[in-house]
Design brief:
By secondary structure, this protein is mainly α. The chain contains 8 helices and no strands. The two termini are 27 Å apart.
């Protein structure tokens, strides 16, 4: 008896994935401009839950990175609203990015390429490629955490919200684009099947 093929997971369109990734930040920025940081925090919390559930419905799987992000935003958002203190939502960026960077670099020190676990099904790299990209990503994430600490402590809340919504996204895109040559250089070539 032949086993039934495993149903293919549905793919999300690039437009929908981008909307789910950036939509909550856009809603956060708009709510801050229209009302204030506390309403914006509540809007962000609701938006990330909606985005996460939509992503799960569309892809039928739970991705680790969005799950961790959801947990941090809900935790620090709740603390912001509970204590009526915007410091918590500002610290969320520092802690999320800082811990993620330490996690990647710690895995690398133990000989594990944790980025491969998250993105291995998108691209198949040689170990040297995973090592380089993981090291750079870890350092980059720590840099964003440090930059966030400087920004939220030195500018107005509205300006910080713009940094959170636009600045972090922009520098992240620039960083990812800068890694394209390394990724392309280290993609594994298809191995020809063994001759019988």
């Amino acid at each position: 008896m032949t086993p039934k093929p495993t149903p293919k997971k549905p793919d999300m369109s690039v437009l929908l994935k981008t909307l789910l990734d950036l939509g909550p930040l856009a809603a956060f920025m708009i709510a801050d401009q229209v009302v204030d940081i506390f309403v914006a925090t509540g809007v962000l919390m609701i938006a990330v839950v909606i985005a996460f559930i939509t992503s799960w419905i569309m892809a039928r799987r739970i991705a680790l990175i969005p799950l961790v992000t959801l947990g941090f935003i809900l935790t620090f958002g709740a603390l912001t609203l509970l204590f009526d203190d915007e410091t918590f939502i500002k610290l969320e960026v520092t802690i999320t990015y800082g811990l993620s960077g330490l996690f990647l670099l710690g895995g690398l020190a133990l000989g594990r390429f944790l980025l491969q676990m998250a993105f291995g099904e998108l691209v198949d790299l040689e170990d040297a490629g995973w090592r380089k990209v993981t090291w750079r990503m870890g350092v980059f994430l720590l840099g964003v955490a440090a930059l966030n600490e400087v920004v939220w402590r030195t500018v107005s809340t509205d300006l910080w919200v713009s940094f959170r919504g636009l600045g972090v996204v922009a520098i992240s895109v620039l960083f990812l684009v800068s890694q394209a040559p390394t990724v392309l250089r280290h993609i594994k070539e298809d191995q020809p099947p063994d001759a019988e």
